[in-house]
From TrEMBL, chain A:
Membrane spanning stretches: 43-65, 106-133, 145-167, 173-192, 223-244, 282-303
GO annotations of cellular component type: plasma membrane
Protein name stated in the entry: Oligopeptide ABC transporter permease protein
Annotated family: Belongs to the binding-protein-dependent transport system permease family.
């Protein structure tokens, strides 16, 4: 018989504690989690709204004023911002508001497309090169060949390639984008290769290899997501780089030609008059480039945090 | 063994770059004597062409150039009649190198510092301030920053010389103009990889065993986070020390940068090839050193399967 005394040694299970093993939080797919993280991040939302607003303005902006980007009015040249010309006029009397938003189309297209092409080629070359280095004789050879191609593209004078393209193709926006992309990806490829070289020594990669995961899956599912922060940072400054490279090409007479406008060429044109106090010529295109950069950067930072599974709180 | 192999590969790479550059520059239309063609009689032009071997068939021109290259003779400059390409480089390179190194040091020092400050204060005020500065630095290119620097520091406040080259004071403004964008990029790289590193378990271990925050950041943080910065400054180093066209033009600096662009527009063939070979040599050596430094920073990294 169990006495009262011994009975006291036993304690009935507290039923509620069993529930502590149950997963309480709803199971979310990766995509949903990322979306929730981004929406929670105020700066990322701000960046997304800004980008959206800039794109909308690039589409409708030039139609909000009765002047086209190319209408000249010499009598009305070099006017500061006013109620008539919101961003002022340039030396030929062209409306700066209209030119700024028209320029947004060219600059954003150049920046975004060039960045996208850089990303795709850079990820492929950098990922394969970094992963294959030190992986047998064939692997060494693949890394060696890819990196020598990168060096050769770095080494050949970029301007020569651009002029060659201009000879082969007709001058225009797409020729500029191709010219920027031919060598644009090499920086991205080397950055990603460096990251992969460092990351692939981690235990989780070894585990994946021993489990028989395919090379492609290790690169794309295990290595690249962990290099994402650096990839996003690199991507966010590829965009302004492309915008300025376009203006440099235009400055050399190889880019978009007058009367077309881009932010880079507008900033370039303003250099001669900024010392005369015509600040609006530099300020508006310059400010738009900085604003776009700001938007991409805060959105990129937010994205980096959101894509990290450890961020979930 | 690895180093010997890489050295041989470097020579092949430089030869490939020179060959491709030769093919491209000869396939674009243009003539180094285009501006003389109207004033000089045909016979004189023929003689000048013969002097620079331009009358010979392309394969012969190529062979002659490569033969001279083996003896490090980069040939005469067509544009500058008194100086050959070796002299152009010997005159211009020291100037560009001083300027480039100076701006690289500024960019590295302040970029790394800004990035670390931002990462350690993630999502706090200092982080936002540092990244705001970085965004401005990336958004304002050197060709806009340089005239603004001249306007304020040289013209209005008269603190520094407007342009040209000579004393150390002359090099301050161009160095700042050159350093700003790389500095901002380095800061963003450093912040991003530092954030990643500071989340790792070995940082927690270092904290748990009582290391001071400074020791954690310097010994464990920077060392593991610096790799992307090293990768980024590799090609940047080669570009900066061989001179940049825009900044040298704005500040009237007698460096090497202008030849990279002017030679192409003047179709000054020996200068195009000479500057390209010179730049490529520095580039491939730098990228090799970057690869080597990966292993010094992180000994786990294997560059080849033989383990070296």
């Amino acid at each position: 018989m169990i006495s009262q005394k011994e009975d006291a040694l036993f304690r009935p299970i507290d039923r509620s504690r069993l529930e502590s093993d149950v997963i309480q939080r709803p199971s979310l797919s990766f995509g949903k989690q990322v979306l929730i993280n981004i929406v929670k991040n105020k700066m990322a939302v701000l960046g997304a709204i800004l980008l959206f607003a800039i794109v909308i303005m690039a589409i409708v902006g030039p139609h909000l004023v009765p002047y086209s980007y190319s209408d000249q009015n010499l009598a009305n040249g070099s006017q500061p911002p006013s109620s008539k010309h919101w961003f002022g006029t340039d030396d030929l009397g062209r409306d700066m508001w209209s030119r700024t938003w028209y320029g947004a189309r060219i600059s954003l297209t150049v920046g975004l497309v060039a960045a996208l092409i850089d990303l795709v080629i850079g990820v492929l070359v950098g990922g394969i090169s970094g992963y294959m280095a030190g992986r047998g004789k064939l692997g060494d050879r693949i890394d060696n060949i890819l990196m020598r191609i990168v060096e050769i593209l770095y080494g050949i004078p970029y301007l020569l390639v651009v002029i060659l393209l201009m000879v082969i193709m007709e001058q225009g926006l797409w020729t500029i984008i191709i010219a920027l992309s031919i060598t644009g990806w090499v920086g991205m490829a080397r950055i990603i290769r460096g990251q992969i070289l460092q990351l692939k020594q981690q235990e989780y990669v070894m585990a994946a290899q021993k489990l028989g995961t395919s090379h492609a899956k290790i690169i794309f599912r295990h290595l690249l997501p962990n290099a994402l922060g650096i990839i996003i940072v690199n991507l966010t400054f590829t965009i302004p780089q492309a915008i300025f490279a376009e203006s440099f090409l235009s400055f050399l007479g190889l880019g978009v030609q007058a009367p077309f406008a881009s932010w880079g060429t507008m900033a370039n044109d303003a250099l001669g008059v900024i010392l005369n106090g015509q600040w609006w010529r530099l300020f508006f295109p310059g400010f738009m480039i900085a604003l776009t950069m700001f938007a991409f950067n805060v959105f990129g930072d937010g994205l980096q945090d959101a894509l990290d599974p450890r961020t979930r709180k | 063994m690895y180093i010997v192999k890489r050295l041989l590969t470097m020579i092949v790479t430089i030869w490939l770059i020179a060959t491709l550059t030769f093919i491209i520059m000869k396939s674009i239309p243009g003539d180094p004597f285009a501006s003389d063609a109207n004033v000089l009689p045909e016979e004189v032009l023929q003689n000048i062409r013969a002097k620079y071997n331009l009358d010979k068939p392309l394969p012969v021109q190529y062979a002659l150039y490569m033969k001279n290259l083996l003896t490090f003779d980069l040939g005469p400059s067509i544009q500058s009649e008194t100086r050959d390409v070796n002299t152009l480089i010997a005159d211009g390179f020291p100037v560009s190198a001083v300027l480039g190194l100076q701006s690289l040091v500024i960019a590295l020092l302040f970029g790394i510092l800004l990035g670390i400050i931002a990462a350690l204060n993630h999502n706090r005020l200092l982080d936002h301030v540092a990244m705001f500065l970085a965004i401005i630095g990336i958004s304002v290119p050197s060709f806009i920053l340089a005239p603004l620097l001249i306007k304020y520091f040289a013209v209005e406040w008269k603190l520094l010389p407007v342009a040209s080259w000579g004393t150390w004071a002359h090099s301050i403004l161009p160095s700042i103009a050159l350093a700003t964008t790389p500095m901002a990029v380095i800061a963003r790289f450093m912040r991003s990889s530092m954030l990643e590193v500071m989340r790792q378990n070995y940082i927690k271990t270092a904290e748990a065993k009582g290391l001071s925050p400074a020791a954690i950041v310097i010994k464990h943080g920077i060392r593991n986070a610096i790799l992307p910065v090293i990768t980024f400054i590799g090609p940047l180093f080669a570009v900066l020390i061989t001179g940049t066209f825009v900044i040298e033009k704005i500040f009237a600096i007698p460096g090497l940068g202008k030849y990279f662009v002017d030679s192409i527009f003047n179709r000054d063939y020996p200068v195009i090839l000479g500057t390209t070979v010179f730049f490529s040599t520095i580039l491939v050596i730098t990228l090799f050193l970057v690869d080597i430094s990966y292993r010094l920073i992180d000994p786990r990294i294997k560059l080849t399967s033989r383990g070296d």
